[in-house]
């Protein structure tokens, strides 16, 4: 089997900045490859859809390797069937289309509040706007205090690099430290909810636990996931879109003036710039993948970002083209199979809503100076994003 490091050098700053030329190369020369630790890396859309959905391909064993994130083995995302469905049902009612309409009314009002603070120079940090609008929305869903977005953002940046294929001891250490804060914070929020009944998602989790239907560990993991991750990828895509609108003003004009194309622009950006371009799985039986033997107990890295630009699926895949036919605008950014993202509707609606509120007041977005970013092969974050709205 080809060696991953010859095609996907995970720590190369160029790959971290723009992995897509590397993915394209790997799809042609090494669609399936083996990393130094034995992990098998898959890049083709059809392979992800096939192997990623086999009942013998599991998620649970992978969380044991994720440092302090292994706490999530107690929520839906950390379980295989039957517990996965049991835990996923706990929160599914909170993200129905009707509820999402209610939640994005919050996103709109928080965004307006932030835009009201912009001075006459039109300067704004787009990434702070995106984080504040999405974090405060998920806080209202949970019904917890909304003031912690700067801390959550800071600690999430420390906690995420551990998911990289090239994570080192310093990443595991930083993740541990971040979780002292993040888990401590969520324990406080849960304690407060136990003593002060309410009708948020956190109260429902606490009540379900009090009825003995879920464990304290399941309550903590589920609340932690929504509190910490609920803003992260949606805010990345909000910022990524603002950057695109600055670089391609015609796309912002189309978004502003034609409501019919807004969802297409959101979907195309979701395909084009996956915030977490990879998910991992473990095999529980011997498999033949692309003619290579993969023994039971192997880790698979399913490269969602690569699949999203597979030329066997998408015409002119490297082009941002919001006029693609609907079949071509579907992507794997929200994962595949039973673990596909429960927050997809909310995330897409938040992205559209923040851009709409901006478009109501401004007709041009300019880059004031280059954004600062924190990029690994597994997650993408804006640190600062100086923009000027006019
Ligand atoms: C653009 C924004 C988002 C992206 C790109 C995204 C992406 C993902 C991905 C890739 C997974 C699956 C991971 C895997 O298969 O191993 C996932 C799972 C999940 N996401 Fe999201 N997510 C986003 C926003 C959200 C939001 C806003 C929420 C909640 C409000 C959310 C809730 C969930 C949940 C609960 C799961 C676990 C589903 C399961 O295991 O069955 N996500 N998401």
Protein architecture, described:
This protein has 17 helices and twelve strands. It is an alpha+beta fold. The protein has a single domain, classed as Cytochrome P450 (Cytochrome p450, Orthogonal Bundle). It has a five-stranded mixed β-sheet. Strand 10 and strand 11 form a beta hairpin. Helix 12 packs across helix 13. The longest helix is centred in the middle third of the chain and has 27 residues. The radius of gyration is 21 Å and the shape is globular. 45% of the residues are buried. The structure holds protoporphyrin IX containing FE. Protoporphyrin IX containing FE (HEM) binds next to helix 12 and helix 17. The site of protoporphyrin IX containing FE (HEM) has 22 residues, from helix 12 and helix 17.
Précis, in short:
This protein is of the alpha+beta class. The chain has helices at residues 13-17, 20-29, 45-51, 60-63, 83-92, 97-116, 126-142, 149-159, 169-195, 201-210, 216-229, 232-247, 249-257, 262-272, 304-307, 326-329, 344-361; strands at 32-34, 40-42, 57-58, 123-125, 279-283, 287-289, 292-294, 299-302, 365-367, 372-375, 380-384, 386-389. Strands 1-2-8-5-3 form a 5-stranded mixed sheet.
Index terms:
alpha+beta, binds protoporphyrin IX containing FE, 11% strand, three-stranded antiparallel sheet, 51% helix, Cytochrome p450, heme, 390 residues, Cytochrome P450, 12 strands
Question: Helix- and strand-based class?
Answer: alpha+beta
Instruction: Output the CATH homologous superfamily.
Output: Cytochrome P450
The CATH architecture classification is Orthogonal Bundle
Total domain units: 1
What integer is the average pLDDT? 97
The main β sheet shows up as:
5 strands, mixed
Q: What oligomeric state best describes the polypeptide chains here?
A: single chain
Characterize the overall form.
Answer: globular
First and last CA, distance? 53 Å
The number of helical segments is 17
* Low-pLDDT runs: none
How many β strands by DSSP?
Answer: 12
């Amino acid at each position: 089997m080809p060696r991953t490091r010859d095609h996907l050098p995970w720590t190369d700053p160029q790959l971290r900045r723009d992995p897509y030329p590397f993915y394209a190369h790997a799809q042609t020369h090494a669609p399936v490859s083996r990393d130094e630790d034995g992990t098998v890396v898959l890049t083709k859309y059809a392979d992800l859809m096939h192997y990623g959905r086999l009942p013998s391909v599991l998620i649970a064993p992978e969380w044991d390797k994720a440092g302090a994130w292994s706490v999530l083995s107690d929520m839906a995302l950390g379980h295989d069937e039957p517990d996965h469905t049991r835990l996923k049902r706990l929160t599914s009612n909170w993200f129905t289309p009707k509820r999402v309409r209610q939640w994005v009314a919050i996103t709109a009002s928080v965004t307006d509040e932030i835009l009201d603070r912009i001075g006459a120079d039109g300067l704004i940090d787009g990434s702070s706007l995106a984080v504040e609008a999405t974090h405060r929305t998920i806080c209202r869903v949970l019904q917890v205090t909304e003031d912690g977005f700067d801390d959550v953002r800071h600690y999430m940046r420390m906690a995420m690099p551990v998911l990289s294929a090239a994570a080192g001891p310093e990443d595991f250490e930083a993740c541990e430290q971040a979780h002292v804060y993040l888990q401590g914070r969520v324990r406080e929020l849960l304690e407060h909810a136990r003593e002060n009944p309410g009708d948020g998602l956190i109260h429902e989790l606490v009540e379900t636990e009090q009825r003995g239907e879920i464990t304290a560990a399941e309550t903590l993991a589920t609340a932690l996931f929504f509190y910490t991750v609920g803003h992260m990828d949606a805010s990345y895509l909000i910022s990524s879109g603002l950057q695109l609108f600055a670089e391609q003003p015609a796309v912002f004009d189309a978004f502003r003036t034609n409501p019919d194309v807004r969802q297409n622009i959101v979907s195309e950006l979701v395909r084009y710039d996956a915030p977490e371009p990879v998910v991992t799985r473990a095999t529980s039986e011997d498999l033949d993948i692309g003619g290579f033997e993969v023994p039971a107990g192997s880790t698979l890295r399913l490269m969602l970002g690569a699949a999203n630009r597979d030329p066997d699926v998408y015409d002119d895949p490297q082009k941002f083209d919001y006029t693609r036919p609907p079949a071509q605008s579907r992507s794997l950014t929200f994962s595949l199979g039973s673990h596909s993202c429960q927050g997809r509707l909310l995330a897409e609606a938040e992205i559209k809503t923040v851009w709409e509120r901006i478009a109501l007041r401004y007709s041009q977005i300019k880059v004031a100076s280059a954004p600062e970013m924190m990029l690994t092969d597994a997650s993408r974050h804006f640190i600062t994003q100086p923009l000027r709205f006019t």
